[in-house]
Amino acid sequence: MADAELEEIRRARLAQLQQQGGSRGAGGEGQEDQKRAMEGERRSAILNQILEPEAVDRLNRIRLVKESRAADIESRLIMLAQTGQLRQKVTEEQLKDLLNAISENQRKTEEESKIVISRRKGGWDDDDDLLDL
């Protein structure tokens, strides 16, 4: 899709959202919904430009299972695209590799944050003081 076509779609959607916001009455809720919708459209437009169709399908399936994980992946992909680290469209295999790397990183973080309590066996006990009487 060309940039001009995307911009036209955005304008049409913005007009539609403004029309819906006007029917709700003047309030901050309509503007917040409108901003949220515009942000969602912006993110989806970027993702459609940087992901191959198979990768988009996989990301949508992930969203069905766990919304937060899909949002995290989207944010990382958008960040990579904005910093110029993506040279070509992301394939499904590359998306799988990214998912594996993130899950591995989360496992390591969870392991590092665990607190292990080890008790000594056969050590001193408060009850031992009572036996000396």
Automatic annotation (TrEMBL):
Residues 32-41 have a biased composition (Basic and acidic residues). SUPFAM superfamilies: Double-stranded DNA-binding domain. InterPro entries: PDCD5-like, PDCD5-like_sf. This is Programmed cell death protein 5. It comes from Aspergillus glaucus CBS 516.65. Transmembrane segments: none annotated. One of its GO terms (cellular component) is nucleus. Belongs to the PDCD5 family.
